[in-house]
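Field reference: sequence -> structure
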Amino acid sequence: MTAKTHGYITKEIELEQIYQFILKWFDSSARVNRYENKKGENNEMAVYFTYKGEERRLFAIVYKSTKFSKTGQKERQIFLDLGYWGSSVEIMKSIISNFSGYLDENDCDDEEPYFIEEHPEGIMPNVIKITRSELNRRMGGTVVIIDDEE
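Structure field:
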């Protein structure tokens, strides 16, 4: 099984908005293949683009699921699929933070997907996961974290 980076956009948007985001922020010459279901609805797409020299393919599909549903009822979501290598997490964080939703950095690990709030222009502060002992080691001593003054 190949590891993937998955995104789940829970906000009511259209697939075209994701494509336009990629055109604006990643690759102005990105290509898209759109797919229709039996009802003639455009509910799937594959976007081919270059990001930091990496040739990437993002697959997106609109579907209904109870995953991440606050009501337990099936709700509309957009599922995003990107191969887990290179800048996949950075790419997916940018896309999801523009719309809001959940990110599963590596679908083959035991880490649960986490929620990313909507941020202006898809710009999200870096999320750095680090243990306290590793932080202390990198900083060369004991780190004491204090709250920002308001």
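Note: The first helix runs from residue 15 to 25.
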